């Protein structure tokens, strides 16, 4: 079977990417219903020629060439690329820009092409079939753009519709071969984007540099050949903007003059990041400039505007003059060299620094006016870190300059434009991280930011009219494929995805890469992968984060969820045809497997440390071996990515442990104990690090499954047995020979257990020792369980998923909405609209409210903890309120400012992905009550609520959700609850 016929067979069974006859909507494109026959780009192996006028923009001509190549990728034979209209053609593809292509303008003038919805717009296009458009041409597919990039996007839209993924090269997504390729007759209108400038920042790019040097340009460290690939990817993703690589190990962009020339030829706008004022890369360029412009006394000038303003001004002017002819974005303002803070030797106070910044901006604006003129647009000012403090203290940014608001580097917007800033002629934009190097921890390895979290923040950004420019920090590009695709999709059509359907993006996106039949399963895999990362990013893992003794071994439950996810990945991967295996490994399998192993090695290391404290013998060394084996396997799968996938194409692109930037957690330290020819019975019951002083707790509502670890304190095997005091206690195993350890699962046979509260025991014997474990069993009976309303207290706590409210009350034009896929569980709630005014008085009558029914068996004053997602507002506050029944609400205030420190509240919040806000509620009588959650500040999101009624042990995660007849009818079989013996 040839590869061509094999891929045809895959298309027949639905394994191919989406094809034109069943294509899903793409971004904001609007397709009008049509009964006209589809237009063939390839028919019976014969391609349709592509015409583009030689007078059109070079970016359009080049993109038309890519369409030719894409048709050849699909059909095996490429059309001709023509620059003159043929004298006779049955079919023709016509590509051109309104106002630039005489052929397009003629069609418009003769009313053969309706461009009323795109003409004069930004980057819009129309694609439609026109009968007898030109003398000698019977039928044409016309792709017409409002400007050069509008045309380019129309071309690439067509490529994607015939099955060429934007990731065909960067992620090795295969193109299915077909003898006949058609597109709908149209018209197909792509409206202008929601965000004008949409792009990426290649940053902390050591792996990309290593790969580029090894496989693309051995004489360079990211040069034109690599940037050609980057530019094409951006355009296929409907982006138009780039901050290039800028670190010491990479060549700076303007080192190779082909780079800005190429960018202009592709239609990419090139800018620079917050420390790179005026397109200057200080890491590489300042030192040689300073060497050539020494002070009169021979010393090197400092990059300090209060010391050497003239030398620095000339430094900026030289680049403005050099790049004046290209479509560029000009960053104004100033920071220190290589992303360090602004240096001002002769300005030490905030007001003095503000004055210096104002002088800097005035100088830069004069340079741009003199060297670039009116083409010096857009100009941007980025109030990043300490510059934000200066901006808020009074820096004057000209009205036509775009303010670029940064997040806290961890996906939480720090500050958004107020009403006055929203009226600025230059508008507002954002700089948002999908990858980051810095405090408190770095995440550079995998794409781990929840898409629903991204959606929540970007929706909030757009609600505040920050829509001029969106830049996403994508690190090395590879591994961020899914997140980047989503961000750029939102940047084009911010309204397409809503709070309840972000996962539908994954379904569609995965369907385009791997075939519609697999879209839903891959989307479910990625959603669970993101959820586990929301609990703790794999790059943030460390020893002793998750409890190994509470809540059924919270760490093991997490590892069980990962293991189940990896099993799904492997089963799906085995079903995919061979041509899809490389793409699947890159986009799905490696991220899941890598995250699993990063967590697994630390799980075993934690079990090893616990075993040492418990005095285990052979089991201690067993856990050490497992931790090191997991680390070795993690290294092995990375080697496979770099040396085997796609024939070694990605040599060096993925490395959790690069040499010059922060690393992912490495090999955890473990302890081994010397072998001793002894044996001894030891045990640790759930809830206890050692022994069994805390009884195993069982409730007929939650129907729990608990564990007892039985272990050998030595190395010689011995026989052991366990005996329950009552026949309705069930054990997963009741004895045998023990060399190192075993985990005994304990549960209750509820139909046989008598009602009431009981205190049975388990007796363990072995190696001449007897030990007892106490149980506490509360059985209210099946009838009470079925009649219970609301969340039922058990085990000394009530745990509630915030999205599981019984009633919502909207007030004052504001409400709470459920955002699926957000937070540590399946959904979170967010107070909207995000622009609503705060409510600080009369909350029960003015504030939107959520109500939760809770059934208490205890009375007293109890701590209640609200798990909120750590959004910020550096000019405001982050507050919500909570109350029980009709008692006055208590306002809780969260962290509103990103300090950039390690070890403080902000650092803890971004590491954990939540902020715990705690107060108390008083329950005076047992029975049913109503817990009430109120909005104080808008755009605040809540994940979980936990009430400690006296039995809540300390743990990283919230305990499993309490019993609720509707929302949580069987907590014991919730995801991760049935953890196997790992």
UniProtKB/TrEMBL annotation:
MF GO annotations: hydrolase activity
Secretion signal, residue range per the UniProt entry: 1-31
Keywords recorded for this protein, A-Z: Hydrolase, Signal
GO biological process: carbohydrate metabolic process
Pfam families in the record: GH115_C (PF17829), Glyco_hydro_115 (PF15979)
Gene3D superfamilies: 1.20.58.2150, 2.60.120.1620, Chitobiase/beta-hexosaminidase domain 2-like (3.30.379.10), Glycosyl hydrolase family 115 (3.20.20.520)
Family annotation (InterPro entries): GH115, GH115_C, GH115_sf, Hex-like_dom2, TAT_signal
The UniProt record lists the keyword Isomerase: no
Domain Gylcosyl hydrolase 115 C-terminal stretches: 790-961
The protein's name: Gylcosyl hydrolase 115 C-terminal domain-containing protein
Organism: Streptomyces azureus
């Amino acid at each position: 079977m040839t590869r061509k016929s094999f891929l045809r067979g895959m298309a027949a069974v639905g394994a191919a990417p989406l094809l034109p006859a069943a294509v899903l909507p793409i971004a904001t494109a609007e397709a009008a219903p049509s009964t006209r026959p589809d237009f063939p780009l390839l028919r019976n192996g014969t391609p349709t020629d592509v015409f583009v006028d030689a007078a059109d923009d070079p970016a359009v001509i080049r993109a038309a060439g890519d369409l030719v190549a894409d048709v050849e990728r699909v059909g095996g034979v490429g059309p001709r690329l023509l620059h003159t209209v043929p004298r006779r053609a049955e079919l023709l593809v016509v590509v051109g820009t309104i106002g630039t292509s005489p052929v397009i303008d003629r069609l418009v003038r003769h009313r053969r092409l309706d461009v009323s919805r795109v003409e004069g717009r930004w980057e819009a296009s129309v694609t439609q079939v026109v009968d007898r458009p030109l003398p000698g041409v019977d039928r044409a597919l016309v792709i017409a753009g409002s400007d050069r990039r509008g045309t380019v996007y129309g071309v690439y839209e067509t490529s994607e519709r015939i099955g060429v993924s934007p990731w065909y090269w960067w992620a090795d997504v295969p193109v299915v071969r077909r003898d006949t390729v058609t597109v709908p007759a149209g018209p197909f209108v792509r409206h202008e984007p929601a965000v004008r400038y949409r792009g990426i920042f290649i940053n902390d790019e050591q792996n990309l540099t290593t790969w580029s040097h090894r496989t693309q340009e051995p004489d360079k460290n990211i040069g034109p050949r690599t940037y050609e690939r980057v530019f094409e990817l951006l355009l296929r993703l409907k982006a138009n903007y780039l901050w290039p690589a800028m670190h010491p190990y990479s060549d700076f962009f303007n080192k190779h003059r082909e780079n800005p020339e190429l960018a202009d030829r592709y239609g990419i706008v090139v800018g620079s990041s917050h420390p790179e004022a005026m397109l200057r890369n200080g890491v590489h360029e300042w030192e040689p400039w300073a060497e050539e412009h020494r002070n009169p006394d021979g010393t090197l000038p400092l990059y300090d505007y209060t010391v050497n303003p003239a030398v620095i001004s000339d430094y900026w002017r030289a680049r403005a003059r050099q790049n004046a002819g290209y479509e560029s974005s000009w960053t104004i303002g100033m920071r220190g060299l290589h992303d360090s803070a602004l240096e001002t030797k002769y300005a030490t106070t905030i007001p003095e620094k503000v004055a210096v910044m104002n002088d800097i901006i005035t100088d830069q604006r004069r340079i741009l006016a003199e060297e670039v003129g009116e083409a010096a647009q857009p100009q941007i000012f980025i109030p990043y870190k300490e510059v934000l403090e200066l901006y808020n203290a009074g820096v004057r940014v000209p009205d036509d300059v775009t303010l670029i608001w940064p997040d806290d580097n961890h996906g939480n917007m720090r500050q958004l434009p107020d009403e006055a800033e929203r009226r600025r002629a230059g508008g507002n934009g954002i700089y948002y991280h999908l990858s980051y190097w810095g405090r408190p921890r770095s995440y550079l390895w995998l794409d781990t930011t929840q898409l629903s979290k991204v959606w929540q923040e970007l929706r909030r950004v757009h609600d505040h009219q920050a829509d001029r420019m969106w830049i996403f920090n994508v690190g090395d590009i590879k591994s961020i494929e899914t997140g980047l695709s989503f961000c750029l999709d939102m940047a084009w059509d911010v309204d397409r995805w809503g709070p309840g359907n972000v996962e539908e993006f994954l379904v569609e996106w995965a369907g385009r890469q791997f075939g519609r039949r697999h879209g839903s399963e891959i989307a479910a895999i990625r959603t669970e992968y993101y959820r586990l990362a929301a609990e703790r990013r794999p790059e943030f893992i460390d020893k002793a984060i998750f409890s190994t003794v509470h809540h059924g071994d919270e760490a093991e439950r997490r590892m069980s969820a990962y293991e189940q996810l990896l099993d799904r990945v492997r089963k799906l991967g085995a079903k995919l045809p061979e041509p899809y295996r490389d793409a699947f490994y890159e986009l799905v399998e490696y991220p899941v497997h890598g995250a699993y192993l990063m967590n697994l090695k630390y799980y075993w290391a934690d079990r090893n440390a616990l075993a040492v404290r418990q005095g285990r013998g052979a089991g201690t060394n067993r856990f050490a071996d497992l931790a090191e084996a997991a680390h070795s396997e993690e290294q092995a799968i990375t080697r496979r990515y770099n040396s085997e996938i796609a024939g070694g194409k990605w040599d060096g692109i993925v490395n959790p442990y690069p040499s010059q930037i922060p690393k992912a957690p490495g090999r955890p330290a473990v302890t081994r104990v010397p072998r001793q020819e002894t044996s001894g019975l030891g045990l640790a019951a759930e809830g206890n690090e050692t022994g069994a002083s805390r009884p195993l707790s069982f409730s007929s509502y939650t129907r729990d499954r608990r564990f007892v670890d039985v272990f050998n304190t030595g190395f010689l095997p011995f026989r052991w047995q366990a005996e329950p005091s009552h026949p309705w206690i069930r054990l997963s195993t009741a004895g045998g020979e023990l060399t190192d350890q075993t985990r005994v699962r304990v549960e209750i046979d509820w139909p046989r257990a008598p009602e009431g509260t009981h205190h049975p025991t388990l007796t363990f014997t072995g190696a001449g020792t007897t030990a007892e474990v106490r149980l506490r069993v509360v059985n209210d009976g099946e009838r009470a369980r079925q009649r219970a309303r609301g969340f039922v207290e058990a085990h000394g706590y009530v745990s509630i998923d915030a999205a599981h409210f019984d009633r919502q009350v909207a007030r004052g034009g504001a409400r709470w909405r459920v955002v699926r896929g957000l937070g540590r569980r399946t959904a979170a709630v967010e107070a909207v609209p995000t622009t609503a005014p705060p409510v600080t008085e009369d909350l029960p009558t003015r504030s939107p409210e959520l109500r939760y029914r809770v059934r208490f068996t205890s009375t007293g004053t109890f701590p209640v903890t609200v798990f909120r997602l750590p959004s910020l507002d550096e000019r405001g506050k982050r507050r919500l309120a909570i109350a029980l029944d009709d008692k006055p609400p208590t306002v809780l205030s969260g962290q509103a400012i990103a300090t950039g420190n390690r070890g403080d509240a902000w650092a803890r919040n971004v590491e954990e992905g939540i902020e715990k806000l705690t107060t108390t509620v008083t329950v005076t009588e047992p029975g049913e009550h109503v817990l009430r959650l109120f909005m104080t500040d808008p755009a605040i999101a809540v994940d979980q609520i936990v009430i400690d009624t006296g039995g809540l042990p300390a743990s990283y995660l919230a305990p499993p959700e309490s019993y609720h007849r509707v929302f949580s009818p069987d907590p014991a079989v919730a995801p991760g609850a049935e953890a196997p013996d790992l």
